[in-house]
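Quick one: structure tokens for this chain, please?
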Amino acid sequence: MEFLWFILIGLAAGYLAGLIIKGGGMGLIWNLITGVLGAVIGGRLLSLFNVHFGGLVGQLITAVIGAVVLLWIVTLVQKKK
């Protein structure tokens, strides 16, 4: 059941990050990939600052923060090309 929540949070986080950075979602698969990678990045990034959110909403916030950072870095790299 935890895996299902991880996937659902990843989808939601990817979608929300897409809205924040790009102004819209990026499709089901890209939202999922962005959200899942964002969850990992967000967890690592927030642990560096010793910040931890609990519960489902906290996991979503962490994943959105990480996904926004991921999309921001991708946008910077694309602009350099």
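DSSP finds three helices and no strands in the chain.
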